[in-house]
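debug: dumping io for the single-chain case to check the tokenizer round-trip. Nothing else runs in this session.
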Amino acid sequence: MAEQEFSNTSTQRRGRPREFDRTNALECAMRQFWQHGYETLSMADLTSCLGINPPSLYAAFGSKQAFFLEAIDHYLATRGAYVYAIPSDQRSPRAMLSHLLQRAAEAFSDAAYPAGCFVLASISATYDSYEIEQAIVQRCQQRMSKIDELVALGVQMGELPATTNAEELAQFFVCVLQGMSLQARLGASTSQLQAIVANALQVWPQAARLR
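debug: decoded output
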């Protein structure tokens, strides 16, 4: 649905805009964009989901693009923060990476949410704006940088050989995570995703107990 400008007269005819909870609105939008994609979902779909009129939605979020990016940020601050959290009680970088991937396997296949990762699913879509593409790429890179940090720490702590190409190994695990998200959207179960994790971690041998 093309974005429209609404006059004050039109707003008055519709009456006072319905008040809504912004967090609930973002949660609803997150699920809708996640399930259906940015291009497929119209502003009419969003107003119907939220139960508010278009002027209220535009007044609160400005545009479909702005609403989408705010929904992405809502995901990263809520569900995404849970999925990609690095445990602080683990001394082993490999164990921390394993924890991240195992949690992703469970979250990506959780029936309470749309399948996969919202950000990873969004990065493979096409958009009508270069700015929105770059904004999503930036958010994805920030999240995936955690994997870079864990691999680099593995080399630093001696869990991985000093000759390890940390950048290439980190990219491998990023690809694993992206593949898990895609497989989940294709219907893979938690156990199937966990099997992917187990096989992927074989490239990072279990380290000797750290002293």
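debug: round-trip ok. The domain at 19-76 is CATH 1.10.10.60 (Arc Repressor Mutant, subunit A).
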